[in-house]
């Protein structure tokens, strides 16, 4: 009441507030009921006011979506009617986390812990714990649950559970009988002779890679390329979302001068790199291994415009590659002055047609200011397209680190425990397993999980949301006596 104003007669109280359109009728009903219960002869009146102030942002949330919305709001609250990244973050955030944390066993433990918090949430809410660490984990219980489920899924793709693999469908690799009969510890299999191309492993990685000495070489290649594909796809999706902001806020000039050249620039370089990755996977098998091109060298040669024919791994992948790459380089180069010059020139010409009225308040920016602002924006986008694509390689790096730590822990602890051959071995298994479980939870789940969480957070805040999301708004905070009493709101 102390925030209300009085009218001229000092007989009525006047208050201004924001209210959701969907709840105006509900507010009127509550005020009418309050007037009747208080016996007032003068009813409360609710009037809509015209204002030039930017309205607050109000997102209808539930206990499942609130955690993901908090992740987005930590970067910045969306402006009124701006595209909200939270619905997409519900899927992409736990998935990118799982790409770095892919392990069926660790994901299962994480999902079970989150499920326990979900099933006991009413009891925990009634206790009102003041521990900030616990409240943070409990508030993100649904996020942790999805991260665990997605980690189980990617663990099946990596065929990895506590550094071990499942042989569900049977490996298409066949060891020659002459080798089986000999006592050898290391086997070099020629894929031309030992691999059945007609029946590859149906889902995930072949379990034979678990015992291969060149396992890391293969996984490095696979995960590095997959990281680039996922990164370019998410950045491309972010650029596509920006067009909805331009349409809603009627910034149609941004569609022509920002959205289209940004899209073409990203596709002409990194979209083309994704195409080369997929083509290499399809076109080059074991028989053409010596002539398989290096994609990094191919990308460098694309900018240098050099197309050697020898040796074979430097030769073009297809006949018209030289023409296609020259066209793509030309498109990328054209996009730079397109983003840099057209918008400031257009805005300057449009402003010269009309005289600025004194009532409009501030002085309009000159052409120099417009050009400088657009130059910064253009340079930032061009450089960030390169750095952000490279930044997605953290998906590969953390996935490799997690898998190697898990394998080292198994070999150093459980492998020794399972090597016992007498009755004392059963006691050692009990002790070793306690040590193994403690390190698994403390290092591989808690520490590695926190690391993967922070990296997934970075990828969403910087690499993804920077393509379309400004986050310059402020949240709608409804008046609530309950929130004030519980200390969650300020008067």
Automatic annotation (TrEMBL):
It is found in: Membrane. Pfam families: V_ATPase_I. InterPro entries: V-ATPase_116kDa_su (IPR002490). Its main location: membrane. GO terms for cellular component: plasma membrane; proton-transporting V-type ATPase, V0 domain; vacuolar proton-transporting V-type ATPase complex. The chain crosses the membrane at residues 95-119, 139-158, 228-247, 259-279, 286-307, 327-346, 430-457. GO terms for molecular function: ATPase binding; proton-transporting ATPase activity, rotational mechanism. It is a multi-pass membrane protein. GO terms for biological process: vacuolar acidification. Keywords: Hydrogen ion transport, Ion transport, Membrane, Transmembrane, Transmembrane helix, Transport. PANTHER family: V-TYPE PROTON ATPASE SUBUNIT A, VACUOLAR PROTON ATPASES. Essential component of the vacuolar proton pump (V-ATPase), a multimeric enzyme that catalyzes the translocation of protons across the membranes. Required for assembly and activity of the V-ATPase. Belongs to the V-ATPase 116 kDa subunit family. This is V-type proton ATPase subunit a. It comes from Larinioides sclopetarius.
